[in-house]
Amino acid sequence: MNNLKAYYERLKGSTIACIGFILSPLSWWNDPFVNIPIAYSLAWLVSFHNQRAFLPVFVSSYLATNVLGLMLLHIGIRKALSKADAQKVRYRTKDFLKDLAISIFYTLLIVALVKLKIIQPLHEYRRT
CA 32, CA 113: separation in Å to the nearest integer? Predict the structure, then answer.
């Protein structure tokens, strides 16, 4: 029974890590297929009500998906590889700050793409 519980905890950690990897900026396909579409969709919906909100919503939701992905990846890997009680696995402030710094770097890259008008609301593509 104890082995079954340990297996379940490792499986849960692996699942969390997989979701985190999908959201994290650690793979080449993540941005074009996951984070940018999520952030763009949210910003596009908000831009119907307030066009000036496109960039702040796009940037903040992109940053949020990256930070969430790195956090879930970190937590999931620790749970999956931990031999101790998985409930005691902690996500430290140091870990969060490192994940935040990586996410801010990627977010600044996205801001540059929006400022260069490579990424913009759909209705703006029709105007040019």
Answer: 13
The pLDDT score that the predictor gives to residue 86 is 47
High-pLDDT (> 90) share of the chain, %: 33
Q: Any idea what the Cα angle at residue 75 is, between residues 73 and 80, rounded to 5°?
A: 90
108: closest CA among 43, 62, 75? 62
Residue spans of the domains in the chain: they are 2-127
Which structure tokens are listed for 25?
A: 């900026």
Q: For residue 35, give every residue at least 6 positions away whose Cβ sits within 8 Å of its Cβ, in sequence order, or none.
A: 23, 25, 62, 65, 66, 69
Please enumerate in sequence order all residues whose Cβ is within 8 A of that of 33, keeping only pairs 6 or more positions apart, or say none.
none
Question: What pLDDT is stored for residue 84 in this prediction?
Answer: 59
Q: What angle do CA 75, 76, 82 make, to 5 degrees?
A: 90
